[in-house]
Amino acid sequence: MTDGEVLPYIQKRCLGFEPTGPPERLPGGNLNVVWRVPGAERSLIVKYAPPYIAADPDTPLDPSRLLIEARCLKALSPNGGLAHTTESTVRAPHPVDVNEEGPVLVTEDIGEVPSLGEWLRAAGEQSRAADAAAQGRRLGRFIGRLHATTCNDDRYAETFDNRSMQETRLAVQYRGVTEMLRTSGVEDAEALGPRAEALGEKLLEPGRCLTMGDLWPPSVLVEEEGPNLSRLRLIDWELAHYGRPLQDVAHWCAHLWMQQHRAPSDPVAEAVTAHRTAFLATYSDALGDAEAALWTDAERRDAAVHFGAEILVRAVGPFQEGYVYAGLEADHPAVQEAVTTAAAHLRFPRDADTSLPRLGR
56 pairs with which residues across the strands? Predict the structure, then answer.
């Protein structure tokens, strides 16, 4: 799909929608091509999945990823089977139309609102710890409900089998850990890398619950509606998979660690800490009886390995650009600290409680 094809497509597929201007291609997308189409009563988001990574056309990528996202949005919509996991303060965008032949997905437009990372950093020298903790509770409750509701349920396992994206993550991220560590000067890189690759291989196996799969700050939008009133909107579900809870929890904790590490001020760092503490506590509560099945000792160890692998791929790997370590050389003190932390989690996953507190009520 090209820029010129978007408007005719919308007019054909979304009858009754009145566009008020040309589509605007949105920046920041890596996997897909995304446009905003303004309308008389509402605007729409159009997402097209090419058979490659949109930001890297030389890298093939299964376009069926967008159909996984469409199924997630349908299940989480007001009449969907997972609607009860959402609430007015935290939900996914509502789907409008899906074309499996494109594939092309049309959703409601959340609007030009900040991501959680941008929202935290906008606080500057003003404390946002209380508001950040409230956001942590909302997000933790939602992710916990999502995991608990779908725990060991074959219906979701079949519908949300996203193995192709898991294979891509194995190839791009986990198998690259040895080289990332080696080029960063980590002496035991050859011993640590295979631990990440082994986790990636395990994550190809049938999972235990539905995971959002891409839980990082740019996927969590903050819609403010006045003082002390804000809502979270979770976008970009194409990496969702019936997988392991660590793929959401360890992923989110890794990004919170990076956000805190590169926080521009003490109040921002304090807000990140408050969010993380509240997220983990509320997530644990929301799991209820499913916690014993989902968070075994083995899961905690694997969570630490993923925690380290995610920091590496953002600090010295292929996803450094556009994030908190963008533009920093490998010998920069902040990058070195990130690598040291990542390596420690890979080296001693049993001792990772300082960054990944043990769940348990």
Answer: 53
Q: Assess whether pLDDT exceeds 50 at residue 361.
A: no
154, amino acid identity = D
CA proximity to 89, closest of 156, 16, 161, 140: 140
Q: Residue 109: what pLDDT?
A: 95
Residue found by looking up tokens 């994030």 in the block: 323
**pLDDT tens digits, residue range 310-328?**
999 999 999 999 899 999 9
Q: Give the CA-trace dihedral at 188, 189, 193, 196, to 10 degrees.
A: 70
User: Which residue do the tokens 């995991």 mark?
Assistant: 147
E strand segments, the chain: 24-25, 33-37, 44-48, 52-53, 56-60, 90-91, 95-99, 104-108, 209-211, 220-224, 230-234, 241-243
Structural domains in the chain, CATH included, are 3-108 (3.30.200.20), 116-354 (3.90.1200.10)
Instruction: Encode pLDDT of 329-344 as tens digits.
Output: 999 999 999 999 999 9
Q: DSSP for 87-126?
A: BTTEEPPPEEEEETTTTEEEEE---S--BHHHHHHTTTTS
DSSP per-residue letters across 166-197 = HHHHHHHTGGGHHHHHHHTT-TTHHHHHHHHH
Backbone CA torsion sign across 328, 329, 333, 337: positive
- pLDDT surpassing 60 at residue 360: no
Phi-psi region of 22 (alpha: psi -120 to 50; beta: other; left: phi over 0): beta
6 three-class SS = helix
> What confidence tens digit (pLDDT) does each residue in 59-85 have?
888 899 999 999 999 999 999 999 999
